[in-house]
Amino acid sequence: MTAASSATGGVLVLGASGMLGHALVHELPRHLDGVEVRGTVRSLDAVDETFRAQVEPRLVDGVDVLDQPSVAAVLAELRPDVVVNAVGVIKQAPGVDDTVLTTQINALLPHLLARDCSAVGARLVQISTDCVFSGRVGGYTEDDVPDPVDFYGRSKLLGEVAAPHVTLRTSIIGPELRHGGSLLEWFLSRDGEQVNGFSRAIYSGLPTVELARVMGSVVLPRPGLTGIWQVASQPISKYDLLRLVADEYGWTGTIEREDAFTLDRSLSASRFADETGYVAPSWPDLVHEMRIAHERWTGR
Hints:
Layout: E1 11-14, H1 19-31, E2 37-40, H2 49-55, E3 59-60, H3 68-78, E4 82-85, H4 99-120, E5 123-129, H5 151-158, E6 166-170, E7 172-173, H6 183-189, E8 194-198, E9 201-203, E10 206-207, H7 208-219, E11 227-230, E12 236-237, H8 238-249, E13 254-258, E14 263-264, H9 270-276, H10 283-298
Parallel strand pairs: 1-2, 1-4, 2-3, 4-5, 5-6, 6-11, 7-10, 8-13, 9-14
Antiparallel strand pairs: 9-12
Helix pairs in contact: 1-7, 3-4, 4-5, 8-10
C-alpha cells in the first residue's frame, strides 16, 4: 500500500477508478475546502493514464476490497473521517451472474466496511440503487417496500447499511475512464447510427458530477444524516434524456422513439429535500454540467 500523504482524517473513496469513484476523487475537493480526499485502486498500473496524471498523489495503491485485512489496514493507517464505497458489481457487468462474487461485493462488503469504519470512528457512505424496486409503479419513497426483480437488485438491497452510517439510493449516468457499458458510453459510441429511445422507461438518477457535488456540499457536511435516503432528479424518459445528451454532445445519429417497453424506477427525493433543502437542477443543466466535467476529466 502506498499513499503520498501520511496524514490522517479526510475522505477515502474506495474504488477510485470506477465510474463514480473517479468523479468523487476529481470533484469532492472542489466542495470540501481544505479536506484531503484520497482514493483506493487495486493497481496503479491498470489506472487510466490521464486520471493517474491528474490525481496520482492522492491514490492509495494495492487495495483489493475482497482482501478484507488489506481494507482494514488502510482504514487503520489513514483513519479517515468518511469512507465512500464506490465499489460495486453493476447491473450491466458480465460478472453480475457470478452470484458468489456479486454477493461478496454488493451485499457483504458494505456491512464489513460499516463494522471496520465504526472501529476507527469513520462514517460510511454506501451507494445503493433504484433497482431495489421493480419499476412497476414509480415515484418510490423510502417507506415503500423494496421489490427487486433480479439478483443484482437483491444484492444491492442486502448491502444497504443503517445508522450511524448512511445509504444513498440513486442511479448514475456519466463518463467512464475506459469505454465501457454505461448508458452514456454506449450512446456516444453509436454516433451516426440509429438507436432506440424508450419513451416509457422513466429515469430519476443524477450525473456523477452532480452526485459528487451533493456528496460534498450536502451529505458529508451533515454528520447527523444517517440511515437510508433517496437522492434523485426530476423523472425523465430515457428517450428525452438521450435527446438532451445528443444535443449537448453534438451527436449526429437518429433516436427512434419506442413506446412499447414500460419501466418506471423513479425515486421520490422529497424526504431528502425536506431534510437538506437540495433540489436537483433541471435536466438540460445537468447534462450540460456532465459534458463539461467529461471534458475536464477525460479530455474527450
